[in-house]
Fold:
Amino acid sequence: MKRRRRALQGTVILALIFVLTNLVWASFPAPQGYVNDFANVLDQRSKEEIQSIADRLQREQGIELAVITLSTTAPMDPKEYTTGIFNEWGVGGPEDSGLVMLLAVAEGAIEVEPGYGLEGALPDGLIGAVIDQEGLPHFKNKAYGAGLAAMASTYADILAGEEFEIAEDKNDDRSWLVSFAIFLLIVLFLRRSRRFPPGGTGGLGGGGRGSGRTVIVPRMPRGGGFGGPRPGGGFGGGRSGGGGAGRRF
Structure:
């Protein structure tokens, strides 16, 4: 009797999980093409610019770009939602050469995710650097269209073989200087300790043998498939590589 109850409970739980999962996946909107402004935050000029970039990527390199804006990704977090909609839409087609840029307004989030076929050309660090330099300055001023267009243009240039210069982080420079100053102080302290050992004349300890000390030197930081939207705006077949980068603004 107990076994039957447990089996029934297990069946009910699995059924609920199945239903809830389907509800979540069913929440993904149908694609409208390369530019999907579901949050209605893009100006017409930015839409046209992104569309032109996406058309060129598809025509010249067979790469499919999907730009998505949403009011919110709730109840999913932006990264989870990006991977889910990437795979649901199949951005990139059979070659997995897709790129999804998703902006969630309520969460103040931007996520960029490449397909398996683009992971070599767009490693996570490079994707993040483009967001930092080309997107965030615009997003912080709520210029969402300008930021997404600038990012799309930069990714297209990188995929075409152009180099992207990553700006130096000034905070890293300050951190290096602070660490170097601490290192110099430690060196000076050790030299002074050798010249005036504890217990000797002028010693720091004032008599008795000094106990051994371990000095820790801080480390120095080192410097439609989506093969063109199908009728109705659909894609099909591409898979997310699961990588990419995201930021909050």
About this structure: The first helix runs from residue 2 to 26.
